[in-house]
Design goal:
Length: 371
């Protein structure tokens, strides 16, 4: 059953996405895992559980910590480049990825040891005070703390701060609509392009992830970028990358950026070698040849893979060194200065100057009373 659910701790709030079953259990309807819970039990995510016949979120206002990052680290290369983003996550996850690169956060069950507490309003105010263009829900998937993410996004928008979701997209239709109507940009983790990979290594579903991606592209104004962690021997074949990137062009068009990131041995895949730069560059070449205009490599030092090239004239319009922008060739509204081609993305003035810094932040204001 795990840690008891305490309803009067100031961090536990009732949720909306559940229903009673005829056998006395309650089903959580947040994600397609559909956890069916007896009294006192928690779902696989660990942060949503049953008490008094309802499903509660137990991490409202709790965080694993706050940090100001470059927006490119999310990674988002076409969403207000060079600006800073206030990043935070909570604990838990609704997937079971054997290769998780943030497992100490996403797999944590130490809810009471979470480092920071802050209300949505305090987070929004902290973003303003630190000069951040946006707030990111990241480190673990915000779908499992959708109520906290939603309220924080509303508070951010009231102060002119944008919001970012870094997500695997494993979520049901109703909470997906509710969450993303408050989000300005998303990076969706497209982990592979086979159901076998998702079943064996994540406990999730490729079909659900693709549904989320196509929903975001077709039915919302959310700026969308994709990331695939390339894992040797599991999702790195030329054939799979070819099928994936052909699907992206066919279903999303050529202007949705994709990031191919290098795997490093972690969590339960310590015996898998790290991804070579050659493999990443090969994936990038396949994506470019299939017609995707903006293809990047991550977790390696690769100036070509960091650079945004104009699809019109081929000029490097945003030249990066890791997360630092060394050359910027766009107008304030995102046109190539060389040929006037519009670059896909969100641009609203001169490039930001945050650079590669990572700045931990303490939000000392107490969380609001959520009871």
């Amino acid at each position: 059953m795990g840690e008891p659910i305490v309803l009067d701790d100031g961090f536990t709030v009732p949720t909306e996405y559940w229903h009673q079953l005829g056998d006395g259990r309650v089903q959580c309807d947040l994600c397609p895992r559909y956890c069916k819970l007896h009294e006192g039990q928690r779902g696989l995510c660990f942060v949503r559980g049953r008490a008094e016949g309802k499903i509660y979120l137990t991490t409202y206002g709790r965080s694993s910590g706050f940090c100001v990052d470059p927006i490119e680290k999310k990674p988002l290369n076409h969403f207000y480049p060079g600006t800073s983003v206030l990043s935070f996550g909570t604990a838990g996850c609704n997937l079971a990825c054997r290769f998780c690169q943030n497992w100490d956060i996403s797999k944590s069950k130490q809810i009471h040891s979470l480092a920071a507490a802050a209300s949505p309003e305090a987070i929004a105010l902290a973003a303003v005070e630190h000069g951040c263009k946006s707030v990111a829900f990241t480190y673990n998937d915000p779908t499992i703390f959708v109520e906290y993410a939603r309220d924080t996004a509303i508070a951010c928008h009231e102060l002119g701060i944008s919001t970012v979701a870094v997500t695997a997209g494993y979520v049901c239709d109703e909470p997906r609509v509710e969450m993303f109507r408050h989000i300005d940009a998303a990076n969706v983790d497209l982990k592979a392009f086979t159901e076998d990979f998702y079943t064996r290594l994540t406990g999730g579903s490729l079909a659900t992830t693709l549904d989320t991606i196509t929903y975001l592209h077709r039915e919302t104004d959310v700026w969308l970028e994709l990331t695939t962690l390339i894992i040797p021997g599991h999702n790195d074949s030329e054939e799979e990358v070819d099928r994936m990137t052909r699907w992206v062009v066919a279903e999303l068009g050529p202007d949705v950026p994709i990031h191919f990131s290098a795997f490093h041995p972690d969590y339960r895949m310590l015996d898998t070698p790290q991804t070579s730069q050659k493999t990443l560059r090969g994936a990038r070449d396949i994506a470019l040849s299939n017609g995707i205009n903006y293809v990047y490599t991550g977790n390696v030092h690769d100036s070509d893979g960091d650079t945004t090239n104009c699809p019109g004239c081929g000029t490097g319009v945003i030249v990066r060194d890791w997360y630092r922008i060394d050359r910027y060739g766009l107008t304030d509204d995102g046109l190539c200065r060389s040929c006037n081609t519009a670059i896909a993305g969100r641009f609203d003035g001169p490039v930001g100057t945050w650079g590669r810094r990572r700045q931990p932040v303490t939000i000392s204001k107490p969380t609001r009373d959520t009871q």
